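Here is an idea for our session: we take a single protein and study its fold together. Which protein we use is up to you, so please pick one and set it down. Once you have written the record down, we can walk along the chain together:
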Amino acid sequence: MPNHRTSSFVDMEPGALMFNNDFPLQDAMAAFEIGEPRFDSGLALLDDSRPPFDPLVPLLPGEVYWIIHRAFSCELRLLRDFILQMAWHTGYTLSQTVFSFLYVHALPDIDPDTISPHHHDPDRTRPVELVSVVLGASVLGLLKCCDLAWRELVKGYVYDCEDWQSDKCDVPMSGAYPVSRILGILDEACVWVRNSSRVRSTWRTALTHRLVLRKTLAELFSALLSKDYFRFRPLIETARFMPQHVRASPPPPPRSCSPAPRVFDPQFPRVLVPAIPLQPIQLPEQGKVRNTLAGLLDSLEQLSILIEISDLSTWDVVGTLRIWQPHPNQSLAYVWSAFQSAIYENGIILNKYLQKHAVDCFFMEALQIPYDSFNSSFQTRWVGPDSLPLRHIERTITEFPVGRVKSHWYNPPRWRRYCMKSLFDWHELYATLTDVQKHLAPASGTDVVTRLRHVVLVRRLETIGDIVLSGFQLSLYSVIERPLAHWYLARVLEQHLTCLDEIIEVLPSKQRIYSMPRFEFQFRARYLTALQALSLALFAVTVKTMGSSWERLRLNFLRRYKWAFMHEYEDFDVPPVGHPNFLAFTTSCSVILQDKEFSPAEQAELAERLLRGSTTAPGRMAGPWTPERVADMGRGAISLGSGRATLVSSYAESLLGRTVV
């Protein structure tokens, strides 16, 4: 280093920065630690003690099987947060997972058409075809699966560096090979294994199952990309059948002198040119790999069932279950993108309907009237001076239900942000309908616009409740914020229940017995009443734990609920419904502390009874997921039943200031 630069470093003050045109701040930050545990490695030297990798070293059938088996760990670790098929699918980069498999970079060396004759070893137990034909086909299939998954993820429904890692480090991933060619290569490998006399029968079966599994996954990912959902179920059944043989007879680990373990080099990614510094990772255990693969297959099977259901309300129920009862092995970015692609892409809903389908579903599932009837009545009754804003209302109602359903397959923080942003749009629609109603001739019976306003308000209040509850799910609230959150949730649920009662009352009388919306709204009313009772109980229990000044609470209130104080709301004459009020909260705190008859335990008992009742009448919009919905209600009731004594003790402790045994 030049002497003048060394002296400059000595003269620098703490906190000062020195810039260089050839070494910008971004490179400096990337050169050291970046604070991300998946990537952070600090200063680590390459291990020079490893022997050089020879892609044409002869391998035993068991060693080839172990390598193929282990490669799935790389893929699925990527799949979990992205999709390498099982390690890439978990948010790690390709270079940390799939690209640490050295045969990925040696495909030209093991091409059976280019291998020279002197590599054909006379050892019958280690035929070179095990590497060139079998292992080469498996590697090509692995890369094609990653390529197909990468194409789905890059559509933009999930977010690079947030949900998955797209950096390919300029490494080709079989993109030039059509899927049909890859499937043909895998078939050729299966034929060679079955007909080879140099491979024992036990290894022939095991290798064939692995090759068929890889071929099936390639077909499945290709079918998803082309939206051939009808092909899913037979492929999923095949993919589920193959790992059963692996579970029954897992491959034995190779011996210490075997070259097989050296084909996975966790430090090799540092030879590539990644966009971020990388930390070597350990591949997951095979049990976790199988669980991730099973979760992927279960999710795609769920998609194949849902795609045949035209009711968006069923999609909404299933998405809501996914949000509040997530399955760890199904929270894959690839799955999120696949569901969003199926819901809406290129102007097509559910891969078959035009955008008007969303409007038709909205009116039939919530109001039990066709949209065409509403349209005709609207135009007949319009007496306003301006043109009828029907196109604006239709476009808004088209966007909102579809956007809401898609948002259920966002990551939780982004879903919460989407809900916050959508609140203003719901209010704009509600204000528009309120203004339109002033310019309509009186209706002879029930005013359908009034019913529509109630439905829009229900959706808005439901979204507010989701925002509050997601704060608990994401552990956003501090101890002093929880009483306010419980109180606000109970207040919103009270308004929500009032709107539901008004909607149920005006359903056509001839449909009251068999109406699907009526059953669904009654189920939601019971569930929300239980949630409100529990929120009130928790508010009473936690109100004594605030321990902070009102001014500090007010500042936290303004920061946490800043979405409710957007100045754009001032552009409407209609005030927003369901927004928080800090003064009302302080009043409720005084009232609940002075109410000697209020019993949190009784509120919890009421919630338990309502949840148990909901298991016998779980609504009619869950479709095949009704049992899962019932189980969710049952778990809530059991939890409340076992936790009531704790709730009573906590409440007594908060009142008396001492421990109650």
Q: What stands out?
A: Residues 356 and 398 are 7 Å apart (CA to CA). Confidence is low (pLDDT under 50) at residues 1-8, 80-86, 647-661. The beta strands are 86-88, 344-345, 348-349. The chain has 21 helices and three strands.
